[in-house]
Amino acid sequence: MIRALAVALLLALPLAACNEDGSSTGSDDSTRTGMGRMVATAPMSTEIQSAGAAPEPMAVGQMAGPPMAEGLQPDAAGFLAYTHDRNLVTEAPDSRVAALEKLCREMAGCSVLTVRVDGSRSGYFEARLPKPGVTRLDDYLSSIAENGEIDRQTSAEDLSDQMVDVKQRIALLTTHRDRLQALYQRSDARLEDLITISRELADTQTRLERAQGEFGRLESRIDRDIYRAQLRAPVTEPGLLAPFGNLGEELLFTLVFTLRDALEVLVWIIGMLPALIPLVLLLTLAVRAIRRRRKG
């Protein structure tokens, strides 16, 4: 019945070929070998075969290693993700970073990732851009760099293994999904079989979309390079008064703190006046009394 085929397809194919990490399970166990042979040859009962044409039989083990998609053979020149680092000295790094950001936004396919400015002393710019954009930004940095000098460093990450693995998973999951859809559309399928196939179909579609998204991210990383630029302002030479540069600042701070303390004392005295007035009056009366006694 269709239920036996569906169960075999659900158990054998995901375990044998659709692992998320791209590995395949062993086939030494007799039960798994039996399941794999059921999926490979797609056996059907007389009742199902009479209801419609059966899928074309496949050779044993074919699902464990589908053919690679055309144009996706491992090629180091085609699967390298580049990162470009630039370090330079220039006047007004803050305005230069703003100009880099503007150039990127005007460029098709360029995305600004990070912009950081430390006053007028330094600036940092990071973007993801198409390969022709690297030359355009390099030309701009060369025009603003002090003496036209730029420290350049370019590194590459080989993504060939990831690309091949993801594409293989997409092919496996696509085949698995198509076969589930063919089983789901059979006119003689029972309700419980349809429910089981529907659940597996939804899970397979989710994993397929996840794999396609991962492939898209890898493809975008290869097509667009990461560009990072660190800009610093020139270092000025100290003048003759450099040793006394902080003296005026220290004197100013001392004067400010002294005035603050004096104001605090004045405020305290003003606050104590209501209590001091009676004391002053008593002292005045006492002094007058003492003087009268001496005169008498």
Automatic annotation (TrEMBL):
The keyword Transmembrane helix is annotated on this UniProt entry: yes
Domain DUF4349: 80-287
Pfam families linked: DUF4349
Signal peptide per UniProt: 1-19
Keywords, ordered alphabetically: Coiled coil, Membrane, Signal, Transmembrane, Transmembrane helix
Superkingdom per UniProt: Bacteria
Protein name per UniProt: DUF4349 domain-containing protein
Source organism of this protein record: Tistrella mobilis
InterPro entries, sorted: DUF4349
Transmembrane regions listed in the UniProt entry: 265-287
Coiled-coil features, chain-numbered ranges: 194-221
Record carries keyword Transmembrane: yes
